[in-house]
């Protein structure tokens, strides 16, 4: 009788220990599953976002240049040629071509050495 009672107590103790360990296993498995899906400080969640221009849904067939775009291009080219020629004409002024002007609009005054002033435009005393 004593042997039977001890065996019964041992079986109950083993069953309760096994039940507790299986609860811990289930908790650990559920926490690991939730950790895999949730962001952490080691692996934060950054949503991937496209920052490029949005693609248009209406695509034209034959996507080559149109007459309108060619005309716009030619107009831009004419404007750039005009500005280049204007800049060349301005550079022919004595303000830019004559070294006496030092970058001034009019040539600076020639003062005697004891009355020379520091110039803010060119950084030279004259």
Along the chain, the helix and strand elements come as HHH
Number of strands: 0
Largest sheet: none
Looking at how many chains there are and whether they match, the oligomeric state comes to single chain
Number of helices: 3
Low-confidence stretches: none
Shape category: elongated
Distance between the termini: 126 Å
Overall mean confidence score, pLDDT: 79
What portion of residues is helical? 40-55%
Q: How would you describe this structure to a colleague?
A:
Helix content is 52%, strand content 0%. It is built from 3 helices and no strands. The longest helix is centred in the N-terminal third of the chain and has 36 residues, at 2-37.
Please outline the helices and strands.
Layout: H1 2-37, H2 67-91, H3 94-97
């Amino acid at each position: 009788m004593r042997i039977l009672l001890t065996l019964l107590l041992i079986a109950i103790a083993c069953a309760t220990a096994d039940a507790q360990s299986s609860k811990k296993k289930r908790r650990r498995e559920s926490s690991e599953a939730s950790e895999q899906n949730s962001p952490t400080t080691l692996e934060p969640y950054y949503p991937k976002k496209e920052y490029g221009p949005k693609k248009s849904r209406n695509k034209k067939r034959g996507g080559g240049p149109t007459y309108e775009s060619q005309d716009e291009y030619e107009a831009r080219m004419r404007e750039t040629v005009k500005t280049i020629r204007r800049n060349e004409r301005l550079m022919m002024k004595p303000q830019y071509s004559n070294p006496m002007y030092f970058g001034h609009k009019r040539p600076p005054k020639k003062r005697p050495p004891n009355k020379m002033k520091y110039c803010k435009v060119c950084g030279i005393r004259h």
